[in-house]
Amino acid sequence: MVDDLRKKGAPLWHEYLEASERAESQARVLRDSGDYPLLGGGDVNLYSLFVERATALAQPLGLIGLLTPSGIAADKGAAEFFRGISGTGRLAALLDFENRYNPGGSYFPDVDSRFKFCALVFGGEARRFETAKCAFFLHMLTELEDSNRVLALSSDDFTRVNPNTGAAPIFRTKRDAELTTRMYADHPVLVNRSTGTEKKVWPVRYVTMFHMTNDSDKFLTRAELEKRGWKPVPLNRWAKGKAEAVPLYEGKMVQMYDHRAADVVVNAANLHRAAQQEAIPEAQKLNADRLPQSQFYVLEDLVRPVNSLGWALGFKEITAPTNMRTMIAALMPGVAFGNKVPVLIPEDQSPENAAVNAALLLANMNTFAFDFSLRQKLQGQTINLFILEQLPVIAPAAFEQRIGKTKIADYIRAEVLALTYTAHDMAPLARDLGYVDGATAR
Questions:
Q1: Which residues pair with 264 in a beta bridge?
Q2: How far apart are CA 249 and CA 293, in angstroms?
Q3: Among candidates 309, 385, 388, 310, which has minimal Cα distance to 349?
Q4: What's the mean per-residue pLDDT of the chain?
Q5: Residue 378 and residue 317: Cα distance in Å, rounded?
Q6: pLDDT-above-70 percentage for the chain
Q7: Is the CB of residue 334 less than 8 Å from the CB of residue 312?
């Protein structure tokens, strides 16, 4: 559409050019001035510049108080700045509000009621506080009188719970804070970058395979495959000569431990959301050949360089802290995945070890405790990589313990296999777990 405006020489095209040039010039000035080293990069939000300017103007023992969007304490782009005050004891208070109060009013009427802002109070370079007064998801000022809602968090609490970014955890109550900090005291995070080097508890690599918009030229529908002479073959694939096309999984197709939760059904009349999920009835799942129908397919040759295994561990990126489940993870066949289903690819492991580790990590990710800790981190609807990396996990060595004569790893591996190996397309996982030497499910 922009290119059409250019070809027509439309006035809107010239306005677009002016706006683009103005934005680039502003970004260049901010970058080259040297006055905004912490918050002047990337897509700049003007409020962050005022925060950094206030920081520079304050006396060493001075005190700064600002009302800002709550993103100053949670967004990745603000991580270096917020870590500099939360991890050093300079933070005095962080009082987080939703832009609404009862009954039915808004603090800022021209701003969406779901928008979050905070009262941010911190000291100059030489001023320190033993703890910071924190509260989250407030609606009324009177809630600050509730001792169960207002927390006293130390700099160690911030760095322990979010070691990579120093971002603020989102504790609604003191009990939430006690449980979460206890988990972090007892268990490591998935990936710790706080020392400047990458320390992984589980040897996996985060990957998003295909972007649903930018990579759409690689997607083929069933109608397109048929028109080009491709033929359907077992395991939900299409073949033409020696080439194969595999289904493209989307988040709507999977649920916890279930890679066959739903088909993707396209309704062309729905202009806003044509592709909808349609749950696969439990009775149909008794048939090990019943596999979910995807909207698109991708050439297998594009998948293998990313993941050469016959299976993959992934999770639904789009979620919410208010959903019944926030983390929904599953082991799935080794097909193609859209960017809303990130996958964790094993690194430097044999297929057998990779399968065992994937089963144990999946069980960990689907626990109530893991889900609870994620809810304390998630402000929006996306499980970003920086959030995932800072979640507490049970280290592999802990699974080597025994309950009676049974090793915990063996018990969990068997349970994950029973929940996952429900269809023929998961036979590669079963083989890597040492369960079968054939290609059919039992």
A1: 277
A2: 9
A3: 309
A4: 92
A5: 11
A6: 98
A7: yes
Report the alpha-carbon distance of residue 313 to residue 333 in Å, rounded.
Answer: 9
Place of tokens 């402000």: 379
What is the per-residue pLDDT across 21-64, written as a single tens digit (0 to 9) for each? 998 888 888 888 888 888 877 777 889 999 999 999 999 999 99
Average the pLDDT over each of 75-79, 191-195, 225-229, 386-390 and give the range with the smallest value.
75-79
| Identity of the amino acid at 278 | E
pLDDT digits (tens, 9 = 90+) for 233-242: 999 999 999 9
Tokens of 259: 């890679």
Q: Which residues pair with 233 in a beta bridge?
A: 237
pLDDT tens track for 95-111: 999 998 877 788 999 99
The token pair that represents 69 in the structure block: 């969007």
Q: Which residues contact 175 (CB under 8 A, 6 or more apart)?
A: 148
Q: Please name which of 360, 377, 367 lies closest in space to residue 416, comparing C-alpha atoms.
A: 360
Residue 76 has pLDDT above 50, yes or no: yes
Which domains does the chain show, CATH number per domain? 34-186 (3.40.50.150), 204-432 (no CATH)
Q: What's the pLDDT score for residue 437? A: 53
Q: Which residue shows structure tokens 């030489």? A: 126
CA nearest 59: which of 130, 126, 5? 126
Q: What angle do CA 13, 17, 19 make, to 5 degrees?
A: 115
* Per-residue confidence (pLDDT) for residue 442, from 0 to 100: 37
